[in-house]
Write a structure and sequence with these properties.
CATH superfamily of the largest domain: Type I PLP-dependent aspartate aminotransferase-like (Major domain)
Largest sheet: 7 strands, mixed
Radius of gyration: 22 Å
Bound molecules: pyridoxal-5'-phosphate
Mean pLDDT: 93
Number of domains: 2
Shape: globular
Number of strands: 12
Strand order of the largest sheet: 2-8-7-6-5-3-4
CATH class of the largest domain: Alpha Beta
Number of helices: 16
CATH architecture of the largest domain: 3-Layer(aba) Sandwich
Structural class: alpha/beta
Strand content: 5-15%
Low-confidence stretches: 411-430
Distance between the termini: 15 Å
CATH topology of the largest domain: Aspartate Aminotransferase, domain 2
Length: 430
């Protein structure tokens, strides 16, 4: 736990890393941006003491790596582990499979040899992109709530410029509001669609507004689409790649971690214009020198059309059942508001009427319900918390959350509420 971590001398570190290290030391108190990790660590500690904890904090769809992937990884183990190294951009067969899938799904022809880079998870793609693209002080527009896109911006000495999306407008991405933030230093806009943490699926209108802005103001767009295709009936999923006119300024980032439950393979990739992918290749060449060939080989069968379509249909059916159960139950609790997400495996209930910080709320849930959830503050959205629906015990987790939240005092003045809840939390912490 943070309290028992040794004190470190931070002054030697680069300023942007010092900032992160400081946040890490204070993570139990602030939760920004390490709140999810804090709650998971606290949950593991309780579990090691014999408590039964259900983990719904980290965003997982399932922990079951597809059998076809395990089989292929095993089958090629010897050959892949001992053969020659793959190019820094990634194994040609995997990049060809990625290009084939992109064409099949989105109708876009991609040159597998120059426009794709395989990385260690999509997070590494995001870090490489910022390192390859940004000069010190370059600005990146990051709509909030957000996954951790601002951190690689800072690590690359760029400047995140936050745009607070309005929950009352269902987090609508209004390109006019983006436009107001553009300066002569703006270089990139980040979008996440389907959206972590809110579960929004952006409309074609929102996307085309952002595409138009990027062209008008000569900006790049990073589209994190790690939840691509993870959309419940109704709204279709539109990738930014649909807009041909942004082809030379769009970097689409995808992951094997979510759709294919392959978190521990740490595999992701970027598709973008050759000059940007080459820049990212330069960063990869002198950092990781490439991704384990064994894992790249093993991942190829996941991209097979027949397998993928069935796998995704099964995943959506399972998560939709969990989503509908959770939304119905949670909305029956006075003081809690949750809208039904259009995509992803995530729920993002609003809890501000309980008058406590999202960190305190999640600590309370952990202690009272034995359920680990992610505090909104980690995603720049205090007043919310995030539930991942991937757990095998999700309905039990929702029942426990419902019971615990029903015990919270509410309908009192905000000030009184805060005082009473602080007392509840500090009692729980003892
Ligand atoms: C929106 C989003 N992007 C990127 C990632 C990083 O995923 P990975 O590095 O495992 O591909 C996550 C993980 O939760 C995510 O939710």
């Amino acid at each position: 736990m943070p309290a028992t971590r040794p004190k470190r001398r931070r002054e030697v570190l680069a300023s942007q890393v010092q900032e992160l290290a400081k946040a890490y030391d204070e993570m139990e108190k602030t939760g920004e941006p390490f709140g999810t990790l804090t709650i998971v660590e606290m949950g593991r500690k309780l579990e090691s003491q014999g408590r039964d904890i259900i983990f719904c904090a980290e965003s997982i769809l399932s922990t079951q790596v597809p059998q076809v992937v395990l089989d292929e990884t095993g089958r090629t183990f010897r050959e892949a582990s001992t053969g020659s190294e793959a190019p820094f951009l990634g194994l040609p067969e995997l990049r060809q499979a990625i290009a084939g899938r992109f064409k099949r799904l989105y109708g876009r022809e991609v040159d597998w040899n120059t426009e794709i880079i395989v990385t260690s998870g999509s997070m590494q793609s995001e870090y490489y992109l910022m390192s390859a693209l940004l000069n010190p002080g370059d600005e990146v527009i990051v709509p909030t709530p957000t996954f951790f896109f601002d951190i690689p911006v800072k690590l690359a000495r760029g400047k995140p410029v936050y745009l607070k999306l309005d929950p009352e407008k269902n987090y609508y991405h209004d390109s006019r509001r983006f436009r107001d933030l553009v300066t002569n230093k703006t270089k990139l806009i980040t979008i996440c669609n389907p959206h972590n943490p809110t579960g929004r699926v952006l409309t074609e209108e929102e996307l085309s507004g952002i595409a138009k802005l990027a062209i008008d103001r000569d900006l790049y767009i990073m589209h994190d689409q790690v939840y691509e295709r993870m959309v419940y009936g109704g709204r279709p999923y539109v990738p930014m790649a649909k807009f041909k006119e942004v082809q030379d300024r769009l970097i689409s980032i995808t992951s094997f971690s979510k759709l294919f439950n392959m978190m521990n393979y740490r595999l992701g990739y970027s598709i973008g214009p050759a000059n940007i992918i080459h820049g990212m290749e330069m960063v990869q060449s002198f950092s990781s020198m490439g991704i384990p060939v064994l894992l790249q080989k093993g991942a190829i069968p996941a991209l097979n059309k027949g397998f993928e379509d069935k796998h995704i249909a099964d995943t959506i059916a399972r998560l939709q059942k969990a989503r509908d159960y959770a939304v119905r139950k949670l909305n029956s609790v006075e003081g809690m508001r949750v809208s039904s997400p259009e995509g992803t495996n995530l729920l993002f209930p609003e809890i501000s009427s309980f008058g406590m910080s999202s960190m305190d709320f999640c600590k309370y849930l952990l202690d009272e319900a034995g359920v680990a959830c992610a505090p909104g503050i980690a995603y720049h959205a205090d007043g919310h918390f995030r539930i991942s629906l991937g757990s095998d015990r999700i309905e039990e987790a929702i029942d426990r959350i419902t019971t615990a939240v029903s015990k919270l005092p509410r309908r009192v003045s905000k000030k009184d509420n805060r005082t009473r809840l602080k007392a509840t939390v500090s009692m729980a912490a003892r």
